[in-house]
Design goal:
This protein is an alpha/beta fold and 207 residues long. The chain contains seven helices and eight strands; from the N terminus they run H-E-E-H-E-H-E-E-H-E-H-E-E-H-H. The structure holds ligand 21W.
Length: 207
């Protein structure tokens, strides 16, 4: 399920050029018994299944040992702190290696958190998904574009929408050729070549 978002376009090119590494691991590789079981019924009853602490700890410890650099371990969880651009920038500048644990089913055994095998829990927003995989890809995408060389040199992640420089305002409207399309014209000021006026117009049209 990580094919596509992580192999195409900007992220794909960054991986091909070696400035970004992403490795995926199937938790079933650490599953128990002939059925490679990774989950079990919740203590206390209730619907759904819970991912087993022993399976996940084995997986985390083995993945940790695959690289000598210390890793920041994030559990993508609907109960986590909502991801904001500020967090993205903190992770991008302080973290060389991330281990992302994607929850599935109803969640993971809480002892994974209590036992210190996770550094933080992150959600990507207040809506319900089926698992942590899409959130993991969102987190990778947001962090990757802050790595020098990932974006083309004409765009830098630094002075763009949501950055501190633009007061985390969104964007100004963009136009390109043709200057008239089905009677809809590009604002005259953008064709004027008057840079001060263009700046003023863009500042006035931030949203
Ligand atoms: C969603 C698992 C909800 C469990 C009562 C009984 C990771 C996520 C996820 C998921 C529940 C993120 C329930 C935004 C997300 C994720 C799967 C709770 C419901 N209520 N960010 N059972 N949204 N989602 N179970 O869903 O793992 S980050």
């Amino acid at each position: 399920m990580f094919e596509g978002p992580l192999t195409e376009s900007i992220i794909g090119r960054a991986r091909d050029s070696g400035i970004l590494e992403v490795h995926t691991h199937d938790i079933r590789d650490w599953g128990l018994g002939n059925y490679k079981q990774t989950d079990d019924e919740p203590y206390g009853g209730g619907a759904g299944m819970v991912m087993r602490v022993d399976v996940i700890v084995s997986a985390i410890e083995d993945v940790m040992a695959m690289d000598e650099r210390t890793a920041h371990r994030v559990y993508l969880s609907a109960r986590g702190e909502t991801l904001k651009q500020e967090k993205v920038e903190t992770l991008a500048s302080n973290t060389e290696r991330l281990i992302l644990l994607c929850g599935h089913y109803e969640g993971i055994d809480q002892r994974i958190v209590e036992g210190g095998w996770i550094d933080e829990e992150i959600s990507i927003g207040d809506y319900v998904l089926t698992g942590g995989e899409l959130p993991a890809m969102v987190l990778i995408d947001t962090i990757a574009r802050h790595i020098p060389g990932v974006l083309g040199k004409e765009v830098s992640a630094h002075e763009e929408s949501h950055s501190a420089e633009l007061d985390r305002k969104k964007e100004y409207p963009h136009y390109t050729r043709p200057d008239v399309f089905r009677d809809i014209k590009v604002p005259d000021v953008l064709l004027s070549g008057h840079h001060a006026e263009i700046e003023k117009w863009r500042r006035a049209n931030l949203s």
